[in-house]
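As a next step, we paired sequence with structure tokens, yielding the entry below.
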Amino acid sequence: MPAASAHPLRIAIVGKGGAGKTTVAGALARTLVEQGRRVLALDADPDANLASVLPLDGAEPPQPLARQHDLIRTAAGVGALPLGFFQFNPDTGDLLLRGTVTWGCGNPLVALGWGKAGGEGCYCAEHAVLQRLLSDASALPADITLIDSEAGLEHLSRGTIAGVDLVLVVVEPGQRSLETAAAVRRLAADLGIARVHAVVCGYRNHGELLKLRCSLGDWPPVAAFPYDEQVREADLAGTPPPLTGEFLLAAETLTANILQLAGDLEAAVSA
């Protein structure tokens, strides 16, 4: 494996729930590794199922850190501080190691799994821990960091992923997905994230893809993943989907665009 980049590219993958974020994240991560890049995969989705689309080096997936409640509450200072207070700069200690496994022959996968059950109220304290963990994880050796974000706009509206270099917005056929994508694009611009690209996932025919392209207007997708029955079967089985046919071509197209951007950023930093 080549040495990790001194300036890793940070990518957040966002979109409406069920649009295919995790599917795209897994395909992109695996194809990047096949191109010789070292990839840190960060699962920040409450469902925390990124491990199911990656070839893990061990038998067991990581235990999402968000489900280790006592550790999170301690890191956030909940209980040690007056009611309603928490630490903005929490001590995450060895939390990162507890939520990390490897995949694809040594690439790190960190499962954050942030979410909150109904009735639990605000989770500002947990987001403070998440932001610190994202910062800690950036120190892990990698050329590219992929963040599989939670569905919707929570991470963007709170500015949790404001420090990323690129946002990929996954869009499935459907008006609600398009509306979420448009909202993500606006929020990312508000956060000063200049590179925000659409990625289509799950189109069933070229007519459907054409309609999506027309709806996106001046925001053409950088890659389009077709609906693939093999991917669906793998999802049901909880195994990494095969990368074949048009689905593989879409992953390779997206990877080529990502590597081009990584090269441009490296050149800008070195200049």
In short: The two ends are 26 Å apart (CA to CA). Confidence is low (pLDDT under 50) at residues 79-88, 116-122. The longest helix spans residues 245-270.
